[in-house]
Amino acid sequence: MAEFPLDPMLSKMIVASDKYKCSDEIISIAAMLSIGNSIFYRPKDKQVHADNARLNFHMGNVGDHIALLKVYSSWKETNFSTQWCYENYIQVRSMKRARDIRDQLEGLLERVEIELVSSPNDLDAIKKAITSGFFPNSARLQKNGSYRTVKHPQTVHIHQARFGTVSLNFLLVQVLPRWVVYHELVLTTKEYMRQVTELKPEWLVEIAPHYYQLKDVEDTASKKMPRGEGRASKD
């Protein structure tokens, strides 16, 4: 992992992508995560249009990480069009930086002999690779709509109002996933999770048996709470 000039969790995610045969998708996600939270913008006079454009990437409750992959892949399909970025309220400069980072990561894959393999339709494989890197950042839904981190328990939230830290895809259906993995926590009025993806709790024991035991996940069949029980925080 020392070969990758990234946060150790991102590096571990990339290394795990070799096992799950999705290195192509994972380096795109890693590049997008590396540029921070400056991908989308909301002009004051076009906030509804900007919000709708952003929601399009979250259709299907795919999770924030997969949505970032969709953004990058869609941009690539347009031959990295600047006009496409304008039409989708996406920062061109941020995307160019993500492309540069991704190019570097692709070169590093070759150096460490990880084959560039694409599995765009195997979302579970992609999520398992993400979980392999970020398994310490897992949280479980509580009855009041907040989340509780599994290890070193603390209360965290999915933000409903502010687009800077919101997890839009789950809020569309208003049924929150019972288990999630997140990229990082952001402290505003509360601790909010940034970049959130649903996972199956058994993955935690499968992927990180040195960190999780069955007792950590045994009370949580990977079902979502009934509609109306788990709602996102509005604060």
UniProtKB/TrEMBL annotation:
Instruction: Quote any Pfam family the record assigns.
Output: OB_NTP_bind
- Catalysed reactions listed for this entry: ATP + H2O = ADP + phosphate + H(+)
Q: Which Gene3D superfamilies match?
A: 1.20.120.1080
GO molecular function list: RNA binding; RNA helicase activity
Domain Helicase-associated spans what residues?
Answer: 1-69
One GO CC term on file: catalytic step 2 spliceosome
| Alphabetic keyword roster | ATP-binding, Helicase, Hydrolase, Nucleotide-binding
Q: What is its EC number?
A: 3.6.4.13
Query: InterPro entries, per this entry?
Result: DEAD-box_helicase_OB_fold, Helicase-assoc_dom, P-loop_NTPase
- What protein does this entry describe? RNA helicase
Give the originating organism. Answer: Sesamum radiatum
